[in-house]
Each structure stands twice: as C-alpha cells, then as structure tokens.
Design a protein that fits this description.
373 residues, 8-stranded antiparallel beta sheet, 5-stranded antiparallel beta sheet
C-alpha cells in the first residue's frame, strides 16, 4: 500500500528532520529579555475592537474546534452572544448569497446578504450596548437541490474583542466562545505581540519576555497586571522547536491558570504539568494542526525534564477490516506523534485534499481523498 500526494504536508510533518521555511510567530519580540524599565504592575484600559485584524488571528476555536453549522433549509439561526441570530441563503441562477440579521429584528434583509465567493465573510451585529459583535463565516456553502430543498453550511467564529498594551507589547483578547463576555478560564483567547496564533486566555502569560498575572475587570473596561519576579523558567527542548515552520505550540496548565506558546517563550516556561492545547505547522498555504490525542498524558516540565517528547517518530494509523482473504482499508488516516499528539492537515488551507492510494504491486486498487481522521 502506498500513500499518494500529501501536498507539502510530508515536509511539514518531518519538520524535526531539519526542513526550513519562513514564518512569523511568538511575542514581540519573541523571548526578549526584560529591560530594567519593565513595569512591575499597573492598570491598562481595554479598547473594544471589531476589525479585519481580528479575522487574521488563529484561535483554538478556529484551528481545533472548528465550530460550524449545517442546516437543511434556506433559513435558520446561529447562537451568538446568547441569542439566536437569523441566517439566510439565496440562490438565484449563478448568484449565491448568504446573510445574517445584523440588527436583531429576527429576519434577514436583502441588504444584509453577501456573495458567497469562497472567502471569509465578515458580519457586524449591532448589540444593545451600542457596540458591534463581529462574526466571520468561513467555508460557507449554500446548496440548492433539484427537489427544491436547500442546505446552509460553514464555520463561524468571533472577530472582535479588546486590545491594550502591557510591557510595551500589544495584546488582543478575543471572545473566542462568542458569549459576549471575556473570561479567564481558557474559553476565550489572547494574542500576544505579533503572533497570529492566540492562546487560551488564563491568568498567567508571558508578555514581552516577562511573566505577568492578569485580571480583567468585570465590566471589561480595563485590566490589571502584576509582574511575577519569582518565576524560574525552564528552557524547553524538542525537535519541533528547532524549525521555523512551527507557527505555534500552545501548552496550558489549568490547575494554575497559565498558558504559554512554546514558540514565543525562548527563555522557557515555568515548571509544571502541561496539556497540549494545540500547535500549527505552516509552509505556504499548507497548514497542519497539532491536536491532543485521546488519552494523551500531560507534559511534565522541570529542570530535569524539559524535553516535550513531541514529534518523531510518527505513525500512520489506518482503519480496516478483513473480508475473506482480503483486507479492506478505509481512507481515514490518522497521523500520530511520539507523545500521542495528532497531526491533522487543515484541508481548508490547501489546494486540495491529500489522496490515499491503495495498490497491489503496480496495480492501483483505489484512490480516494483523505478523510478527517
């Protein structure tokens, strides 16, 4: 059996072998040492932001959860900020449109429709507090069937939140679970510096090379921050961290309320037992998402154990069954790393799905697009 074209995903997955690419990731600047003027504590005003900049930031919801909708009708609703927001799909000849109720009236007007072109669509929903809640609908499809029925499908996520500065570094806090609130339990996200990959938002993060404890005010008007001077970071080691095609490798410790992107934390992270939130490898348009596998053990970080244990050797797991004297193999391939982490191609970022080819000698038995594993 042979595995056919896997785009440039083979190179991405073999990052530990030394392949180099061109990426930008980490804090601003990543791992920078704190200067004597590094603020020890303070209060920062939070400024609401609903912009295209928020669209370009990757969050756990975007990369890992991929919360989507599939409705077998021309109209339906999406749950946003605790309310049901009306959506509508329209097909008129070759013209395909999708729209959202932007004002809360319960229906979608013609002026609220946008053409479905395959690109992300940004909708700005008016809120009672006179602010907007920006929503992006991605991979949208409006399908009209011959029997007159329709189907609406796609992914949707928040493109709004708050921005401020800590330690001369800009941060953006994103309402990742789209409930209209900012919480520090990992359900929302924080993008630090020039990193395009956000971390789950907890209490403790590394910002501008220093570790800070953050507390957001209940009314989300401001936050306070305190520099943690008693932290002794442990420098991490992993074949993955040696390659600049690794865009993010986010580790979280829920028990202590802290999250760090190992790519940006060049000086290391505090000792502790971490879980993998997600990671991302990228080369050009091709992206591979690193997700925690089922039953994956925690990653222990200490002075005597700083190797994350991720990466090679990689295993390709196929699902199949015995049928008489033959073995039938399904095309749902799962790529698993040394610690049980899963490497999943983000098919939406590529020019096409990898093709799994099954052959017997030189005879090709079947060729099918790789399914989600």
């Amino acid at each position: 059996m042979k595995v056919g074209r896997v785009i440039t995903i083979a190179a991405l997955l073999l990052a530990a072998a030394g392949w180099q690419g061109h990426l930008s990731a980490g804090d601003s600047p990543p791992g920078a040492k704190a200067s004597p003027s590094t603020p020890s504590e303070g209060e920062a005003k939070l400024t609401y932001e609903a912009s295209d900049k928020m669209v370009s930031i990757f969050t756990p919801r975007k990369l890992v959860e991929k919360v989507g909708f599939q409705i077998f009708s021309a109209k339906g609703t999406l749950n946003i900020c605790g309310k049901k927001v009306a959506i509508l799909g329209v097909v008129a000849g070759r013209q395909v449109g999708f729209g959202m109720d932007l004002t809360g009236k319960g229906t979608v007007e013609t002026s609220e429709l946008q053409p479905v072109t395959g690109k992300p669509m940004l909708f700005r929903l008016k809120q009672e507090n006179k602010k907007e809640f920006a929503v992006v609908v991605d991979r949208c499809q409006v399908t009209s069937f011959s029997d007159g029925t329709m189907r609406l499908s796609g992914d949707y996520y928040a493109a709004c939140g708050f921005k401020t500065m800590i330690n001369r570094t800009q941060i953006r806090i994103i309402d990742d679970n789209m409930d209209g609130k900012i919480t520090q339990d990992g359900k929302d996200a924080i993008a630090i510096g020039n990193s395009v990959c956000a971390q789950p938002f907890y209490k403790i993060h590394q910002i501008g090379g220093s570790f800070y404890e953050i507390k957001v005010a209940k009314d989300m008007s401001s936050l306070t921050y305190t520099k943690l001077d008693d932290v002794s970071p442990v420098k991490l080691t992993s074949p993955l961290l040696k390659n600049n095609i690794l865009r993010a490798l986010v580790l979280i410790d829920e028990s202590t309320g802290q999250a760090f992107d190992a790519v940006g934390c060049k000086s290391g992270i505090p000792a502790g037992d971490y879980s993998l939130a997600y990671g991302a490898l990228e080369a050009g348009r091709d992206v591979v998402i690193i997700k925690p596998g089922k039953g994956m053990k925690k990653i222990s970080v200490s002075e005597g154990s700083s190797d994350l244990g991720l990466g090679k050797p990689l295993k390709l797991l196929f699902t199949g069954y015995v049928a008489g004297d033959k073995v039938e193999v399904y095309p749902d391939v799962q790529i698993v790393g040394a610690a049980g982490e899963i490497y999943q191609p983000d098919f939406g970022s590529t020019s096409g799905r990898p093709v799994v080819t099954q052959s017997e000698g030189n005879k090709v038995i079947s060729q099918k697009p790789m399914e989600f594993g």
